Structure to design on (244 residues):
């Protein structure tokens, strides 16, 4: 039964990876959430308050990025690791590394901007395109499955959301892997 | 997700290739453009850039702050 489910889930994942299918899904969820008045089910949406050159941005990646000095993500758990790592905004690229065995990150190792464009965002602040960067950014490891999903959605993702609010963040750029 | 841009590129390359700052900055620009222009939830914009077969130039950043 569990194998059958896994096979179906894999098929569903491939299906939803088609952009037009994902778009249909996203529109349906957005519409039904609004109709049902169910804030939990709806896709949350707010317009950016004020111009971008006054906005404070943060980065979140699921590419397994963390400080070399931090504990690496758990690669032994089959269900993945739902924890996160805080990355201070002034961290030099050479102090960052990637722990994530579920995608080929050799290119991201060679140039972190492929997955975690902190350097580009810094230059956009210097250019005056973006107002400011948050004092901390966040690294997750994208392979989260089974019972760990509940920990991610019920605990760690909420913690990060609270920290973003605490830091006065106006927008977040999420980069997946 | 509130809004997203999509690129049909290999997994682990959301902003493109290494040492390709114009490509990376173009994806950031398009994502931020989606941020400032989106009027509703659930928008996934397919950018249509081909893998390793595009030429990129510096984005027109002032468009992001046009009144």
């Amino acid at each position: 039964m569990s194998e059958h489910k896994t096979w179906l889930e894999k098929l569903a994942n491939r299906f939803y990876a088609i952009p037009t299918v994902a778009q249909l899904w996203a529109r349906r969820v957005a519409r039904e959430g609004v109709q049902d008045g169910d804030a939990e089910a709806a896709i949350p949406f707010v317009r950016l308050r004020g111009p971008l050159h006054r906005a404070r941005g943060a980065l979140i990646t699921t590419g397994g990025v963390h400080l070399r000095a931090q504990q690496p993500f758990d690669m032994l758990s089959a269900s993945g690791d739902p924890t996160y790592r805080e990355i201070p905004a002034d961290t030099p690229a050479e102090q960052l590394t990637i722990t994530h065995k579920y995608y080929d990150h050799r290119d991201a190792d060679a140039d972190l901007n492929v997955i975690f464009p902190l350097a580009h965002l810094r230059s956009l602040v210097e250019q005056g395109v973006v107002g400011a960067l948050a004092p901390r950014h966040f690294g997750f490891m994208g392979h989260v499955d089974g019972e760990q999903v509940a920990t991610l959605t019920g605990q760690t993702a909420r913690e990060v959301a609270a920290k973003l609010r605490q830091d006065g963040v106006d927008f977040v750029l999420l980069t997946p892997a | 997700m509130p809004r997203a841009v999509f690129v049909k590129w290999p997994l682990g390359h959301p902003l493109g290739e290494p040492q390709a700052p114009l490509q990376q900055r173009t994806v950031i620009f398009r994502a931020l453009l989606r941020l400032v222009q989106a009027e509703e939830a659930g928008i996934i914009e397919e950018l249509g850039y081909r893998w390793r077969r595009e030429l990129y130039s510096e984005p027109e950043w002032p468009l992001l702050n046009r009144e």
Q: What stands out?
A: DSSP finds one helix and two strands in chain B. Residues 3 and 42 of chain B are 6 Å apart (CA to CA).
